[in-house]
Specification:
By secondary structure, the chain is mostly helical. It has one domain: Arp2/3 complex 21 kDa subunit ARPC3 (Orthogonal Bundle). Strands 1-2 form a two-stranded antiparallel ribbon. Strand 1 and strand 2 form a beta hairpin. The chain starts with a helix and ends with a helix.
């Protein structure tokens, strides 16, 4: 892998951590944040075998913010979120990634955190609250990431 690509990946990981930590709004047991914009963007910008690094950046934010109980789940959830977008983009490389792919990734994230919260609280009813606010985050981030696709394609073409 080229040094230029490694620098971009490191920058994206750092951006995921920083945006998750500092562009966030506390709510219920956790927080709403815009870090998923970068997680979703990483699905388009980095090789599919490295999308776990999107999860690493987000999990690091959990650890630094004191939500360590979520770190492992975040690593898995955000990796799959980026993978959904990256896999579609590779399979359909001749087409623009449609909004529904970003939306699917965002809804996946909401669903997965709903299940995570059931595991962590042992309260099945928490799913509905968790799914609601995490899906809202996923939808907002999907919309922003989708609007950034033209810029992301230019970045990818320079690699």
């Amino acid at each position: 892998m080229k040094v230029k690509n490694m620098t971009l990946i490191a920058l994206l990981m750092a951006m995921t951590t920083i945006i998750t930590m500092y562009i966030s709004f506390p709510i219920f047991q956790g927080y709403l944040n815009l870090g998923d914009v970068i997680v979703m963007s990483m699905g388009l910008l980095i090789p599919l075998n490295l999308v776990f690094l999107a999860g690493v950046g987000a999990a690091l934010a959990d650890l630094l913010l004191g939500y360590g109980q979520y770190a492992f789940f975040t690593l898995v959830i955000k990796t799959i979120e980026a993978y959904i977008i990256g896999r579609w983009a590779i399979k359909h490389s001749d087409k623009k990634v449609p909004f529904y792919v970003f939306l699917t990734a965002g809804i996946w994230m909401g669903f997965a955190y709903g299940l995570t919260d059931i595991l962590l609280t042992q309260n099945p009813l928490i799913f509905f609250t968790s799914f609601g606010y995490n899906s809202l985050q996923g939808i907002v981030c999907a919309l922003i990431a989708f609007m950034l696709v033209p810029i992301l394609k230019k970045i990818k073409n320079r690699q």
